[in-house]
Amino acid sequence: MARSGLLVNLAVILSMVAVTAALQCYACNEQYVTVTTSAGEGERTETEFVSCANVTLKNCSDTETTCVWGSMDMNIEMTDGNGGTSEMFVEIENMKSCAAEENSCSDLEAVLQTALGEGSTVSISDCEINSCVDNLCNNASEIYGLSGLIAALIGTLWMH
User: For a FRET experiment, which of 3, 65, 94, 154 has its CA 20 to 30 Å from that of 131?
Assistant: First the structure.
């Protein structure tokens, strides 16, 4: 009996060590998004602001080994195959997250271009992305700061 109790305690301790070994980063994505869509019924423009007033802590996945932070302006143009177009301007003032590796602005632009595919154009300007590998090294108080960014942008484009 004592041996099985010891094994259970050891398993609990090891699982706690494994959980605490994951990298933690600050997470935030403050952005201004302007989407202009033109189709059969004319042109429509929508603007949205997402605040980053409350920076959160994020437990990075096993494949995310880097904290990132930064800012950028991005212009994305898409055609829908039926003559309609969408243009999206995204100004990200305060981005912070976990990432699988160190990323550059050109890396992000290439990943987005590949994800959006043919008929789309991605242009990133005024871009700064920084990275570090220690827990909470992407300072919560800095006004700078990627893994969820790509999915969020693609999701926003396809919703419009």
Answer: 154
